[in-house]
Specification:
single chain; 292 residues; alpha/beta; 6 helices; 5 strands
Length: 292
């Protein structure tokens, strides 16, 4: 049985941990509001540019289509861009993204495809290197950015386009977590190269009008497709950031509650032990007095 001093030490330690988890919960809640606003603000832009791409791509076929839209004509080498957080203490947020990446990689390899992985975020790299270390070809560290910004999306987009031009892959897919609510983040896979508008995004209604483009649709697509890829990557980063803070807030709230429950249990055990010690001392005093 631990001594009273050990009980007091453990209670003090758990109380200190509870203060830390409570503070982290409040910080995550404050950051979540801004991250959620950024994610929701990015969605209309990403959907609108996807709608424009869908409209223009319908008029461009065959050899006239830009390479980022037409692809290489093969689907042998797949690049998975797995986007996770740089930090932990967020429950199963990163694990869910990595699980989807592993499932997608497993399906492709069973189909005889070559799989390559780029990890965006330390936590995804740390988990994936245990099982898919040979497939990881690069790691992008975003810890240098204080918060998600357009420069991060442009940097990742430029790297993907450079690898595509070198012939390093045929199809690139983003894997990230789409923010739905504080307690719900949905792991999502979205193909970005060749550019395919997301499901549910329809071409804009032109009302029967016929447009003549100057320059041509292909030339406009050449200029828009890099922006489209950067926009989809940036939207995924915003979704991930909001999901991370939501998961962290929930995890820290649970940790604070668990610490409170543990403090109650330890306090109860401490009081019982203290009462037992007092009872034992009283018995010894009474026994000594009777012996005299």
């Amino acid at each position: 049985m631990p001594s009273l001093k050990e009980f007091r030490t453990r209670i003090t330690s758990v109380k200190s941990t509870q203060k830390i988890t409570k503070a982290m919960q409040l910080v995550a809640a404050a950051k979540l509001k801004r991250a959620q606003e950024a994610a929701e603000a990015a969605r209309p832009y990403a959907d609108r540019i996807a709608s424009v791409i869908a409209n223009l791509s319908a008029a461009v076929k065959g050899d006239d289509a830009p390479r980022l839209l037409a692809g290489t004509g093969r689907e042998e080498t797949h690049l998975l861009v797995v986007m996770t957080s740089e930090r932990g203490l967020c429950g199963g947020f990163n694990t869910a993204i990595v699980r989807l990446a592993r499932e997608r990689a497993g399906e492709l390899m069973r189909a005889g495809k070559t799989v390559k992985i780029i990890c965006v975020g330390k936590k995804g790299r740390d988990q994936l290197k245990r099982t898919h270390g040979e497939q990881i070809i690069d790691f992008i560290d975003l810890s240098g950015f204080r918060t998600v910004e357009a420069g991060a999306g442009a940097m990742i987009g430029a790297k993907l386009r450079g690898l595509f031009e070198e012939g390093a892959f045929d199809v690139a897919t983003l894997i990230y977590s789409r923010f739905r609510s504080v307690i719900s983040q949905v792991p999502t896979a979205r193909q970005v190269i060749p550019a395919v508008p997301p499901e549910g995004v329809a071409a804009p209604d032109l009302g029967g009008a016929i447009y003549s483009y100057e320059p041509s649709e292909a030339a406009i697509l050449e200029a828009l497709l890099p922006r489209y890829i950067d926009a989809q990557i940036l939207a995924g980063l915003f979704e991930n950031q909001a999901g991370f803070f939501g998961a962290q807030m929930t995890a820290m709230d649970n940790a604070t509650r668990n610490a409170g429950d543990l403090i109650k249990k330890l306090t109860l055990r401490y009081n019982r032990q203290r009462q037992a010690n007092i009872t034992k001392e009283l018995i010894e005093i009474i026994s000594g007095a009777e012996a005299l």
